[in-house]
């Protein structure tokens, strides 16, 4: 009810206010009043956003700067039906983008899992969510396209696409830069220089640095008596660094250089090189609950166990899960341990020095139990964590864009090469123990080539786009996870290779001044390979079944696939392959009853490629696969510019049939991905902008979304697309569960934004007052609807005041973000089997001051 009242209030503000803002996210209105036109390339050709029959939120460089939007995730608050998070569960890095548009998204950064929202940098697809949360240091504009974009943008744009267009070198010397200070000792500097070389060749260099302390502090554990722990360096990891005494800080720099050649007769070439370096602490983490008391099958009562083992298969609940098992081992007597056949489970553990090189937990003294008292400080901005605390990223790319007139149209070639090297380590247990320590290595490269032919025929009545696309990526990933002081030690290297080819086309035909038609399609063929080695170097399965010492005979008995190669590998050493073929069509109709009014309807399909789930912790003959996702969307919209460009109203309603959904679901300690069912997504978006003059403008948007499951694998029988998976999770004290009618994660029902802007002359200069209010209703943060992880309804307010000197050479801005200090969970995980439910809270209220200059 509260959200409906807010929606009604916002509607009254939008339509009753004496003035309205510029185009949604667009440049400020011209001095004479009126909404500035924004030119986009959403259909592979330059055209006004008001003439594109797609729901788009477009943002210019000026709008991004005024609203303190510094990276892709910050667009979330001002884009209707869009959720963009700076980080995903246990990634430990704000360089990772968790993106969802209209309820379609992905919340995992693993190499073997593809994003559902495509991010493009100057036309180049960024294949990994690692590094996709781009620093927006020299952006000309950003286009957020909603709904499946499979025809023109291809695979993995099933939810939508985010196109980042950076600054083009100018033909005159120009420098523009700014320096920003603010909360948490923030120091940020950015600059862009245009340097013409001759009449045909120009260049630009852009740089940016960002340093800021973290907002969550690591504090010493309060302990009156000494305690024993093995320390996180005892266990395998991607690196070892405790960083500073904070988490959530920034330390990065970026550089981009461009060379542009233009002969003045339509032949152009642009070469771009960019590099980003990140070396900072991990994202903050807060333990919301510990689950050591949840019953499980490990070290069950002897009467319930498989004879001779420590595994309860009779009740599955007379023992413990990992945190409870740890607490049992350190507190039980030798006879109690023996009574549950848990001597090996509680015995010596592996370390970086090899198998069984650490002492036993059974009979240990002065060890801390794991519980909420030892895992939480009671303050979301402090933690007892003392393990790994780092996030490192080196990302660079090269691209060459060639464009020229070939008679029948304009031919454009986009060639690129990109490389990502990523390492991160985060202490997720919130305690001085090693109960959940994760670290990762990712090394990836990609190459792509795209040819586009755009043109017109039939006296301009027919517009066409034809294209061919080739893409290849390969790389390594390595996961390290330590559970329960080393009771389970996941060591998960793997290799992935993808080769993709596609051809596409779209025709737009103007039947008359009133009627236009669109027809397009894209065919894609893709080959993927995965080569996995995941293992547990502590041999928990051997100890659980008391099949000791570890041997080839035990490995064969327990189903390990590689007894002749490795006694610990869960998957065989041979690579597995999958191939995918897809045709994504689009059809549309546009009516133009007036010059600046377009009514459009469209039907489109898109798909997201399949892959492998690799984080299971039991022996398997093959790494489990999951199939592609498919979405089919109907959309009806209107785009209008009225009252002599003083009022703009854009609206859309849509309905999506979303099948074969790939979602993360916990299976024991393992976050797995599978096709979990189907969903129905329906919603609406309204964006209103206006600029009546007088220096006062306002803009706003209202979005409604209903995204829920219509079929759940395993709840009412299995379909072929379920691959024998079951997604049904019954409601329980910790979770709402998954059932028909359950909401999809990251899909709030309501999002409302209102942004007034007032520009007033002061002497020969001017002062700009700007504010943003964004209301977002409650949403699930995970698939299972974990109650403690749900993101509460939020009301975020940002504001700033800018003085612009005469001539625009200098400007000074003072502002604040999240002024009411709303704290909400950005992301998190219910690691019930591992022992905790944890999450990352949003940044607190912050101030900033910026000085800018240009000449």
From TrEMBL:
Write down the membrane topology: Multi-pass membrane protein
Q: What PROSITE patterns would the database entry show? A: TONB_DEPENDENT_REC_3
UniProt keyword list: Cell outer membrane, Ion transport, Iron, Iron transport, Membrane, Receptor, Signal, TonB box, Transmembrane, Transmembrane beta strand, Transport
Domain TonB-dependent receptor-like beta-barrel, which positions? Answer: 360-819
Any idea where the TonB-dependent receptor plug domain is?
49-161
Supply the Pfam families for this chain: Plug, TonB_dep_Rec_b-barrel
Q: Which Gene3D superfamilies match?
A: TonB-dependent receptor, beta-barrel domain
Reading the lineage from the top rank, the first entry is Bacteria
Q: What is its main location?
A: membrane
Where does the UniProt annotation locate this protein? Cell outer membrane
N-terminal signal peptide: 1-21
Keyword Zinc part of the UniProt annotation:
no
Q: Which family does it belong to?
A: Belongs to the TonB-dependent receptor family.
Record protein name field: TonB-dependent receptor
In the record, what lineage is assigned to the organism producing the protein?
Answer: Bacteria, Pseudomonadati, Pseudomonadota, Alphaproteobacteria, Sphingomonadales
